[in-house]
Structure formats: C-alpha cells, structure tokens
Amino acid sequence: MNNFLIKPKIVTCSSADEFCTAYHIGKEDLVLVSGNMRKRNFPNAFADAVVIDYRQYVTGEPTDTMIEDIRQSIGNQKINRIFAIGGGTILDAAKLFALKEYSPVDKLFAGEILPQKDKKLFLIPTTCGTGSEMTNISILELTKNKTKLGLANDALFADEAILIPELLQNLPYQFFATSSMDALIHAIESYTSPKATDFTRVFSVGAIEKIIAGYKVIATEGKNIIPTLLKDFLAASTYAGIAFGNAGCAAVHALSYPLGAARHVPHGESNYAFFIEVYKTYASIRQDGALCQLKQLLAKLLGCTPSMVFVELEGLLENIMQRKNLHEYGVVKKDLESYTDIVMQKQGRLMANNYVPLDRDTVLSIYQKLF
Ligand SMILES: [Fe+2]
To answer: Half-sphere exposure (CA, 13 Å, Cβ side) for 309?
Structure first.
C-alpha cells in the first residue's frame, strides 16, 4: 500500500508586503527570522509579535542545543501561530516549537516524547533547497550522538508553506549553490527510492527538469543570470520536498550526515561530495527499473547517451560547486570506519530507500574512494 500526501497548503505571495497584509502578524505570534532579513524585507512588520533572531543561536547546521536555547528565550510567552522565515535549519527547528512538548530534544528524537502539535505553523523558505516546508521531517545534529538524525512524524507538518520568491533575491551564491544541489539530490534520491510512485515521480521529474535547465542557463550565461531563475528554483525545491517527503531520501543523505556533523560541512555540499559516487555504485550493482529510467531522463536533459549521464552531470554540477575529497575537510582515514558504523547503525530510515541495498563493505568502499 502507498500513500501520497501533500499536507501543507501552498500559498504564493508576490512580495513580502502582500504576505504581511494577508497574515496580520501580531500578538501571540512567534516569528523566527534573521535580523538582516527582517531589516531588509520586513522593516515595519512584526511589532507586536515575539520575534527571535535565530542567527544569535545558530551559525551553521542545526543542533539540539540550539533548540533548547531558543526554547529558553521563548519562555512562557503565549504563542498561537509560528512563522518561520529562513533556510532549512530554522524551518526544521520551527516544526519542533509548534509541538506541545519537545524538550529534552534527545528524548523527543528517541521516541520517548509523543509529538503533539498545538500551534499553527507557517513555513516561508528563503533558500531554494531543503523543501522542508513540505515535509513532516525535522533534522538535527544530536550533539551527544555526533550525527544528524531525522524525526519524521505527521505532527511536524506545517499548516501552510508560503513561497515568496522576492525573499531569495539576496541569497549569497554559496547558499544558492548548496541549497539547489540539495534539492536536485532530493529529487533524484526520491526518484530511485523503492517507495517512489507515479505520483511522487511527477514531482521528482518536475524538480529535476527545472534544476538542470537552470544549471544549463547558468553554465552558458554566467552567475549574474541567477536572480531571474530563483522563482523556478524555489518551485523546484518545493516539488522535490513533496517527492522526498513521500518517497524518502537515501544513501547520499545517509553517508553525508556523519561528514556534515563532524566537519560542519554545509548540507548540500556534503551531499554533493557523495552524490555521483553513490549513483555510480548503484549502477555497478544493478541498472534496471528506476535507475534505467533516470538515466534516460538525464540523457534527454543533458543531450548525451544514457551511459554518459553521470560524467555529463558531474561536468555540469562542477560548474555550480567544486567537489572536494573527504581529506580536504579534515577527515582522517580512521574516521571512515566510524562514519560507516554510524550509517549502518543510525541511518536505517534513509538506507531503507536505497535503489539497491548497500552493505557495510560497499558503504566503506564509497568512503574510501572519496577519501
Ligand atoms: Fe537534503
């Protein structure tokens, strides 16, 4: 049996002003937004709301301690609605703040606290990658466990995903590159997941087409063209969120999490470090079904033969972001065994979605090849 769910209502606003007029944010509302974004896009808004500048709590990837610190700042103030305006870190965090009880965070992630939502949640993405606005997943680094873990529960769905392309206009190139790469990987991993259906593949393919088309334009026109493409990249990211929210991500994300947590590598960059090698590994084991169809789709989009798609794709992606070997992030050889153990023992939720099962030796060999 398969279910296909698009839970949050998707609202598109043409500007921040239109959003402010529509939602009347004020008393008993909590707004999570960076100081810079507020100054630039919402200079006269949120006066009566509880506003948290999350940049004061987090500089990179999200952790359980960040959640506990923000929780302390919110204190006992009465909150009915939560508006999170930001990248995946803050959208994932906001999903927890919408719960009746979420502390201690490690108990929530261990299943010892039942997630129960008791506030309205509105997620407004300002990058074009995580798709978090559409999923029921919150991903955090649990500092005691030294890896990132995902909590998936329907109580984490937002009520509305609000898309405001204007908010992406000042996205620094590095964030554009890493977030859009993450979205492409969401679309591709969900396409080849055993949980994929005809419904999820519509959204995977839509995202892949938009992102590859955008990357090809950037390859020929240069980076200055990016602002004209952001509306498409934001839509692609949301499509990919719908796809992986239903069909799941897999080994690329699983292998990426120990690196991301240990070396604080941005999520999309860390995924890119593993992406092509994981797909070459799949292809070396089996090439029928979804992988065969994916290669045909990519061949059409890239203008090459199916046998050359991963070479061509890597060439296109290198233009967006240069892949580094693991030692360049400070990884040492003995880390590879422990990363492999983390993947095999803690990332079962993702590894269950692999196109073909990958055993311990195969996972270790991917790490070794990329070292
Ligand atoms: Fe991701």
So the answer is: 19
Kindly give the distance from the C-alpha atom of residue 218 to the centroid of ligand 1, in angstroms, as a whole number.
22
The whole-angstrom separation of Cα 303 and Cα 331 is 36
Q: How far is the CA of 219 from the centre of ligand 1 (A)?
A: 23
CATH number corresponding to 173-370? 1.20.1090.10
Whole-number Å distance, alpha carbon 243 to ligand 1 midpoint, is: 12
Written out in words, the top-level CATH class of the domain with range 9-168 is: alpha beta
Give 10-residue mean pLDDT values along the chain (371 residues): 90 97 97 96 96 88 91 96 95 97 95 97 96 95 82 96 97 97 98 97 98 98 97 98 96 96 92 98 95 98 97 97 98 97 94 98 98 98
Where exactly are the structural domains of the chain?
9-168, 173-370
Q: Give 287: exposed, middle or buried? Use CB within 10 Å, 0-12, 13-18, 19+.
A: middle
Could you tell me the distance, in angstroms and rounded to a whole number, from the CA of residue 44 to the centre of ligand 1?
Answer: 33
